[in-house]
Amino acid sequence: MKKKEEERKKQIMNAAFHAVSNLGYDKVTLQDIANHANVSKGVVHYYFTSKQNILLELLESTTSKIYRFEIQEIGKYHSAIEKLQAYVNAVFVSPQDNKKFYRVYLDFLAQANGNEDYKRINLKFYENCWGIGQEIIELGKGEGVFREDIDPLTYAKVIRAIIDGSLIQWLTCDIEEQHTFYKDICFNSILKLLK
């Protein structure tokens, strides 16, 4: 029974992600989420007490999933430059996935101003990202491929800013074919900064 409940909850969370991606944070309703999940609104209410509750869990699960994927991809490599390339590739996963995620994520960020829970989840996500950057920078410094004078935490923050800035600019240009261009520019800019 527990497994079936977990699967149903996952189905509703996936539906919530697609509903917010398609309709936007402000417009999406519990009924929209139910429709995307092919369940009744009552089923959604059984698992989540409110729209706010489901969207809060959606942000937390989505950012955690992305972090776990990035860690998994980086773990496949040994050198700092390979890990950096894997990190950028993991973030620039595909035009379709990036569009969906950033549509949802930017909607959440717009709400974060007045929502302490969103701020907390977002800060945890960024702290995880900064941890990845720090690890890569420290490895690169140890290998002698990155500058000795750089502070790992400061530059880890800059790395994530370059990544997000590149993806947001690509998204606002709305030219799918330029996804690879922005990924390459992002990686090369970070590498130049660190060397």
UniProtKB/TrEMBL annotation:
<keyword id="KW-0804">Transcription</keyword>
<dbReference type="Pfam" id="PF00440">
    <property type="entry name" value="TetR_N"/>
</dbReference>
<dbReference type="InterPro" id="IPR023772">
    <property type="entry name" value="DNA-bd_HTH_TetR-type_CS"/>
</dbReference>
<feature type="domain" description="HTH tetR-type">
    <location>
        <begin position="6"/>
        <end position="66"/>
    </location>
</feature>
<keyword id="KW-0678">Repressor</keyword>
<dbReference type="GO" id="GO:0003677">
    <property type="term" value="F:DNA binding"/>
</dbReference>
<dbReference type="InterPro" id="IPR039538">
    <property type="entry name" value="BetI_C"/>
</dbReference>
<dbReference type="InterPro" id="IPR036271">
    <property type="entry name" value="Tet_transcr_reg_TetR-rel_C_sf"/>
</dbReference>
<dbReference type="InterPro" id="IPR050624">
    <property type="entry name" value="HTH-type_Tx_Regulator"/>
</dbReference>
<feature type="DNA-binding region" description="H-T-H motif">
    <location>
        <begin position="29"/>
        <end position="48"/>
    </location>
</feature>
<dbReference type="InterPro" id="IPR009057">
    <property type="entry name" value="Homeodomain-like_sf"/>
</dbReference>
<dbReference type="InterPro" id="IPR001647">
    <property type="entry name" value="HTH_TetR"/>
</dbReference>
<dbReference type="Pfam" id="PF13977">
    <property type="entry name" value="TetR_C_6"/>
</dbReference>
<keyword id="KW-0238">DNA-binding</keyword>
<protein>
    <submittedName>
        <fullName>TetR/AcrR family transcriptional regulator</fullName>
    </submittedName>
</protein>
<keyword id="KW-0805">Transcription regulation</keyword>
